[in-house]
Amino acid sequence: MELTITRPDDWHLHLRDGDMLKAVLPETARDFGRAIIMPNLVPPVVTGADATAYRARIHAAMPEGADFEPLMTLYLTEATDPDDVEAAAASGLITAVKLYPAGATTNSASGVRSIDAVMPVLERMAAIGLPLCVHGEVTDHDIDIFDREAVFIDTKLDPLRRRLPELRVIMEHVTTRDGVEYVKSAESGLGATITTHHLMINRNHILVGGIKPHYYCLPVAKREEHRLALRAAATSGDARFFLGTDSAPHTDPNKESACGCAGVFSATNTMSCLAHVFEEEGALDRLEAFASLNGPAFYGLAPNPGTITLRKGEAVPYPAKLDTGEGPVTLFDPGHPLHWRVV
Ligand code: NCD
Ligand code: ZN
């Protein structure tokens, strides 16, 4: 069996820098036409000048003959200058700005503490039509980690959208039924990315039979009912939902540690995983909408010109790890064989 779709994009990707960038970039550039590049480097990509320099490093790391465009983002801080953001958008350098609540996840210390402090930037973005990508979790110590997305929607995101309805917002890596319902309740201006792994694992995968650090990411995988809501949304064809893998490489020593890093590395086998999921849901005809069409439509871009073909056959022999100059990175393992491969 074969399936040919418009070349997909990844609307949420961590490429890192240096040797890690060199090792992981080809894994995405092989199947994907474009990706929204997360700015949470150390130090973060805050200004237009930072993004120009980072984009040049990505281009320098590009494999021969690659047909891949990094779509740059800026990391929103309380010191971000609205004029710098507008200039970066006007020149075509950036495609979005990313809001991390301070302390929410990996390298988010310079994120936002108070929405009030960034309102001038958000107002400018609304005026020029530049989308905001949001890591939608509160960071309050008294809020349970499994509730942080739902509480963020009620206490931060919904008030912000009421205050600034013209701002286009993407709820990144939505992980709950609450998130799906909230996105569906919005008439316009709100979309959501869904990761590969949140369609395939729930919290049992992380915690039952011994702790599995390679399934730990943020937002953390939730109960099965939430995974099912994500699968229904992703496979529905609803244009508000699109692929953002959140492929986030960390080396094995950094994952397999007393305080392991959050992040799942799924760039290599995402299209095999997605074909598996969409086939299970009887929705192979909607894989193209999720992976290749809905994202560009939300961002106001054309779909990629090319196509990729997936073929179903023998189990695909993915390696367990990717070697990088910084150490091995374990690939996302859905826990069963994958039979679809990009040919
Ligand atoms: C991401 C990372 O490692 O940069 N980790 C993750 O678990 N998703 C950060 C993020 O997107 O939250
Ligand atoms: Zn991420």
Automatic annotation (TrEMBL):
Ranges where the Amidohydrolase-related domain occurs: 10-309
Pathway membership: Pyrimidine metabolism; UMP biosynthesis via de novo pathway; (S)-dihydroorotate from bicarbonate: step 3/3
Binding site for substrate: 14-16, 40, 135, 218, 250, 262
Domain of life: Bacteria
Cofactor note: Binds 2 Zn(2+) ions per subunit.
Entry annotation: catalytic residues: 246
Coiled coil: none
Gene Ontology molecular-function annotations: dihydroorotase activity; zinc ion binding
GO biological process: 'de novo' pyrimidine nucleobase biosynthetic process; 'de novo' UMP biosynthetic process
Residues binding Zn(2+) 1, per UniProt: 12, 14, 98, 246
UniProt keyword terms in alphabetical order: Hydrolase, Metal-binding, Pyrimidine biosynthesis, Zinc
Reaction(s) catalysed (UniProt annotation): (S)-dihydroorotate + H2O = N-carbamoyl-L-aspartate + H(+)
Residues annotated with N6-carboxylysine modification: 98
Recorded GO CC terms: cytosol
Pfam families assigned to the protein according to its UniProt record, in alphabetical order: Amidohydro_1 (PF01979)
Binding site for Zn(2+) 2: 98, 135, 173
This enzyme's EC code(s): 3.5.2.3
Cofactors demanded by this protein: Zn(2+)
Family label: Belongs to the metallo-dependent hydrolases superfamily. DHOase family. Class II DHOase subfamily.
Quaternary structure note: Homodimer.
Function of the molecule: Catalyzes the reversible cyclization of carbamoyl aspartate to dihydroorotate.
Name assigned to this protein: Dihydroorotase
Originating species: Rubricella aquisinus
